[in-house]
Amino acid sequence: MPAEGAMGQILLLVAMFAVFYLLLIRPQQKRMKEHKARIAAIRRGDTVVTGGGIIGKVVKVESGEEVVIEIADNTRVRVVSSTIADVRAKGEPVKEAVPAKTPANDAG
What we know:
Structural class: alpha+beta
CATH topology of the largest domain: SH3 type barrels
Helix content: 25-40%
Distance between the termini: 97 Å
Order of helices and strands: HEEEEEH
Low-confidence stretches: none
Radius of gyration: 26 Å
Number of strands: 5
Number of helices: 2
């Protein structure tokens, strides 16, 4: 009979681990994956919040690891992209300059 009690305890531990995994570990992994994707998709014009709580606008993405943000007029700070806590607003993509129509261009 002691084997039945031990088997019950093992099943209880397995069930507790399964619940722990489904309620805590899996959602955390999903949030980390989404955060990593948002950080990887940062581009110029996005509004971001750093880990220290500084809000700024992305001026330049220098490499996969560094981003230059403007936190005030003419005040730019270079930060490591992993320290960015949140991307608040996505900026508009940079539009390419369209040549203005002139009568000389229309003649051709």
